[in-house]
Automatic annotation (TrEMBL):
It is a multi-pass membrane protein. Its main location: membrane. The keyword Cell membrane applies. The keyword RNA-binding does not apply. This is DHA2 family efflux MFS transporter permease subunit. The lineage of its organism: Bacteria, Pseudomonadati, Pseudomonadota, Gammaproteobacteria, Pseudomonadales.
Amino acid sequence: MNALQIADARSLRFAALLVTYLQSVNLPLPNAALRLIQGSLSMTDDQAGWIFTAYLAASAITMPVAQWLAASFGLKRVYQTALGLFVLGLWLGTQADTPLAFVGARLLQGLASGVLAPLSMAIALDTLPAEKRPAFGPKWTALVLFGIVSGPAIGGWIAEHFDWRPMFYLSLPLIAYVFMVVTLLLVEKKAGQRPSFDFFGFGTFTLGMIGLQMLLDRGERLDWFDTPEIWVEAFASALGLYLFVVHVLTARVHYLSKGLFRDRNFMLSTVMFFALGFVLLSTMALTSPMLDEILGYPPDTTGLLTVPRGIALVGAFVLMGRAPAWIDARVFIAMGIALVAYANGLMLGYSPLMDWVPVTVTGFIQGIGLGILMPALSKVAFSTLDPTLRPEATGLFNLMRVYGSTLGVAVVQTFFFNNTQAMHAALASNLTPYRAALPTSLPALEGLNHLVTHQAAFIAVMGQFKILLVAMLVVSPLVLLLRKPVPAI
């Protein structure tokens, strides 16, 4: 390569890494400003959960087909189209004046993000010499994590000092720069013939997971199985997963190779990676609203309180890359699960009277645990796997983290609203003239109801932290079933 080619490769790699950061940072960007968004759009609490699940579920749909789209229609064309759709989603989000319009914009962002993430990595890898590519994966993952953990702080600061809409404008000039670099420097690549893809397997798996997602998202609002929509979503989920399992067991060639399911380390690690995703974003989806809406912290402070968790997570992840090779990775997995579970246990001691210290400490401990757990699970998962299955396994492994996150957010949001109502009814039932001197004026009664609602919401949040603790404890025995990692052949 001459000097000009090296410069062009670096420019492309920087652009691809910039997109990787932008698509990950936009996922949690509204997290610290939910109160402002809800007030501006008259959005109910259960609808606020769709801000995250729409983005995640949409990206989970398009992520598996990104490589097929690039091979079929051209990498450059597909990448430019995804950038355009991402920008459109950002702009529509700033123009939204109803909850449905805003969630639709987030859905479009997620669809584009699912394509941009794997193709950005492919572009970046293509600009590197072959000998440097194996070491690039952890760096790329660290950048994704940095985007996820820095999003609330950036969004909260912008929302507090300006408004919540400008937080989406921040990405527009950066994506315009990337589009220009890609247009000028990226050489179009397209397969000689359209590659095969198991659309039936992919479609049934997606139907099952999205049906389950909609069931969890809409169930509480529609009184569960008292409405036809929930029955339809439950049937779609059950049918999709049933057809997918039958397809895997009977078809010779399908979306997921049977060899993946025969590797014990890979399957157990994937289950634990799903649980990690369940905790990773669900904690954020609970902590920021707790600080912002229940405890009354301003958006910028709410965002800043997530920074220690992010620093610990990314720092531990990077340091794990320097861990001695002779240490059994299963030890790190056990250590990571123990730290995450311990932090979630500490979260059960939160109080409405606490200051910022408990949130910072527990977040920092959990971040260390997650930062240790992620690379250790990746090492064990692929250590005994057939090398020919690694590309397919990588896609499934990362997809399970995404599905874990989207289902985790849906589950905690569902139980949060249900438990809030139950606790409100339980607390209010004790407010009788025989137990306390109740106020009689309307403003005083409204204030009392507001106090009871806050207490009920806080108790409900503690219940959801317990769910996250249980999720880690349930998968912890799987560590004992893992085989000792061996160097991959």
